[in-house]
Amino acid sequence: MKPFPLAQALAALFLSAPVGAVEMQIPGPLGPLAAQAIAVQDARHVVVLIPGSGPTDRDGNGPLVRSDTYRLLAEGLAEAGIASVRIDKRGLFSSAGAIADPNAVTLADYAADARAWVVEAQGLAPCVWLMGHSEGGLVALLAAGDPPPGLCGVILLATPGRKVGQLMVEQVAANPAMFFLMGEMRAIVADLEAGTPRPAQTIPLPLRPLFPPELQPYLIDVFAHDPAQLAAGWSGPALIVQGGRDIQVTPADADILARAMPQARRQDLPLATHMLKDDLPGQPFATYANPALPLDPALIPAISAFLP
Question: What is the C-alpha to C-alpha distance for residues 192 and 163, in angstroms, rounded to an integer?
Answer without folding.
Answer: 12
